[in-house]
Amino acid sequence: MMRRTVLPPERRLPVTPVQAAGIVLIVLAAFLSYGGLRNSFRPYTARIDEAIDSGRSVQLVGFLGSTGTYDAQGRFSFVIEDETGRRVTVVSREPKPSHFELATSIVVIGRYDEDQQVFAADQVLVKCPSKYHEQDASR
Questions:
Q1: Per-residue DSSP letter, 97
Q2: Where are the beta strands (DSSP E) in 54-104?
Q3: Cα atoms in the 13 Å half-sphere on the side-chain side of 29
Q4: Are 26 and 19 in contact (CB under 8 A)?
Q5: What are the phi and psi torsion angles at 54 (to 5°)?
Q6: pLDDT by residue (tens digit) across 8-36?
Q7: Greater confidence, 26 or 40?
Q8: Which residues contact 64 (CB under 8 A, 6 or more apart)?
Q9: Is the pTM of this model over 0.70?
Q10: pLDDT, tens digit, 9 for 90 and up, residues 42-77
Q11: Dihedral sign, CA of 101, 43, 58, 30?
Q12: Half-sphere exposure of 22 (CA within 13 A, CB side)
């Protein structure tokens, strides 16, 4: 037969309501911090297939596949091509970036929209040839 050991009343550590509330707040803050940080980190990929399969917001780098147009709703759309030659249409509510046509590579930040079959971009970043490289080449 097992005997249970019971601590005398003076050795118990009672949790007061204030301490319980503090513990709950700490656990809640940790949970919310994890969720917020998880959503703020965006994977970086150079493959359209990975961006589509991820199902979340990513940074997709590629090359310009078209010069782009504006649709009836004022959204800027263009085609981006990845390193494998796969292409996807990118739609952005942002205006066309300056020097867009001169871009050597493009980074779009957003997620693939399965319903519309387009990459919905929150941001479009372009990497253009630097004016400093042109000066160095002429020397």
A1: P
A2: 58-64, 69-70, 76-81, 87-92
A3: 6
A4: no
A5: -65, -35
A6: 666 566 778 888 899 999 999 988 888 77
A7: 26
A8: 78, 79, 80, 81, 100, 101, 103, 106
A9: no
A10: 788 888 888 888 888 899 999 988 888 998 888 999
A11: negative
A12: 5
Q: What is the DSSP letter of 73?
A: T
Helix (H, G, I), strand (E, B) or coil at 104: coil
Residue 13: the pLDDT is 67
Strand partners, 126: 106
Indicate if the pLDDT at residue 132 is higher than 60.
no
What amino acid is encoded at 85 in this protein?
G
23-61 exposure pattern, b = at least 16 Cβ within 10 A, e = fewer: eeeeeeeeeeeeeeeeeeebeebeebeebbeeeebbbbb
* Cβ count near 90 (within 10 Å): 24
Q: Tokens 């040839």 correspond to what residue? A: 129
Query: Which amino acid type is present at position 109?
Result: I
